[in-house]
Amino acid sequence: MSGKDKIEWAIQWMPVLNSIKRDFAENKPFKGMKISMALHLEAKTAALVLALKEGGANVRIAGCNPLSTDDEVAESLKNDYGVEVFAKRGLNTNEYYEYLNKVLDQQPDLIIDDGGDLTTLAHNHADRSENIIGGNEETTTGVVRLKNMEKAGALKFPMFDVNDAMMKHLFDNRYGTGQSTVDGVINSTNLVLAGKKIVVAGYGWCGRGIATRMRGMGAIVSVTEIDPIKAIEAHMDGFDVHPMRKAIKNADLVITATGMKDVVTLDDLKNAKDGIILANAGHFNNEIAMNQIEGTSIGREVRRNVKVHELFGKKVYVLADGRLVNLAAGQGHPVEIMDLSFAIQALTAEYIVKMRPKERRVFPVPSEIDKKVAEIYLKSYDINIDHLTEEQIRYLNSWDEGT
Ligand SMILES: NC(=O)c1ccc[n+]([C@@H]2O[C@H](COP(=O)([O-])OP(=O)(O)OC[C@H]3O[C@@H](n4cnc5c(N)ncnc54)[C@H](O)[C@@H]3O)[C@@H](O)[C@H]2O)c1
Hints:
Layout: H1 3-12, H2 15-27, E1 34-38, H3 43-54, E2 58-62, H4 71-79, E3 84-86, H5 93-104, E4 110-113, H6 117-124, H7 126-129, E5 134-137, H8 140-151, E6 159-161, H9 166-169, H10 172-189, E7 197-201, H11 205-216, E8 220-224, H12 228-236, E9 240-241, H13 244-247, E10 253-256, H14 266-269, E11 276-280, H15 290-296, E12 300-303, E13 306-311, E14 314-319, H16 325-328, H17 335-355, E15 362-364, H18 367-380, H19 390-396
Parallel strand pairs: 1-2, 1-4, 2-3, 4-5, 5-6, 6-15, 7-8, 7-10, 8-9, 10-11, 11-14
Antiparallel strand pairs: 12-13, 13-14
Helix pairs in contact: 1-3, 1-4, 2-3, 2-17, 3-17, 10-11, 17-18
The structure holds nicotinamide-adenine-dinucleotide.
């Protein structure tokens, strides 16, 4: 399948974004504007880029992770659609930042980021960021970084927290990461999940999606947490909850999804079984302490996206060098899920251009945008729901009416 075919396939299954794109084509909200993006560059992302372009923007895009770019899609976006693309799979750190710098070189009016690297770069290069009126951040880890910048008084332009929009994290982080992590693990290992003992680190939006989907495949799943409430949630959802040190002893496969560093360390691996497999679905490749592992044993590739490290006389397999397994070794989130996330991205970008917020803070996505995306989705799939009657609305707003 060519890059163009991949993009067209994705677009076909993205009715919400397509509806927004038609509106953009008519109203040109980004006419004459420059948008710089750093996102996982694959077919669904191309659909967002093309919607923004249709709205009049000049778009430059880089990848937001050295291993998540689909080269065929990147080439097609450049050659078939005339987008300025700076992305390639398998970049080293210098090349990765060189490309991020290139998208910033156009002195953008808006930025769309995933993970916070582009935003941080923009803050370190005032000469190329003075036109920025605002931007969006896609993921949990990026939002954590933004909120730290806001607290430190370092934020130089308003940023919108797309991750916390309901129509994003409820579906993208949970069902999207859940399904595509299964995909990434199966793709790289070709092993059966039924009967495997799997430890999921973190029971946030991504972790609960992964744990549930893995259980659905017949795996025996346990969970590690640091938050007592999330731990109880996991417990009541029927998962065993243990600290990593204990959980890792029986594990065939450990999957991290915490947004935290050093969740699986060399010390933890002392307790692991020979042949344990490690995978990460969190944003950065530091959840599994890859610096410790690689500092002790250089990995040898045994399959595409699988390296073996000899540690403590045991074989420890790491998928996708500890980078997002669902993107580096799988196909990323299902198309219909990214339709929702990118619909939020597109409408939030339009909102920034229309409203021009001035405060240098992290804004939530307005609830009207969540609602609009939900309504377009329901309409697209011909799903009808009930609506409150006048009497029910009156009841809802009353206080003197009992049963
Ligand atoms: N792979 C993907 O496609 C994808 C999609 C969305 C988000 N993400 C990334 O996944 C990560 C998690 O996102 P989320 O939305 O689930 O976040 P979240 O905040 O909802 O959940 C993270 C959970 O991890 C727990 N945690 C933190 N440190 C821990 C530790 N040391 N051990 C065990 N648990 C720990 C937290 O208590 C929390 O419950 C982030 O880095 C996010 O950016 C990845």
